[in-house]
Amino acid sequence: MLYIIATPIGNLEDISLRALRILGEVDFILCEDTRVTKNLLNHYKINTKLLSYHQHSKDQKVDSLLGLLRDGKILALVSDAGTPGISDPGGKLVQRVLEDQTLSSSNEQEDARYKIESIPGPSALTAALSISGLPTDKFIFMGFPPHKKGRLTFIKKVLDTEYPVVVYESKYRIIKFLEEINEYQNQLIKKFETEINSKGAKRPKDLTSIVVCRELTKMHETTYRGEIKNIINKIKQDPNAQRGEFVVVIGK
Ligand code: SAM
Question: What's this model's pTM, rounded to 2 decimal places?
Answer without folding.
Answer: 0.94
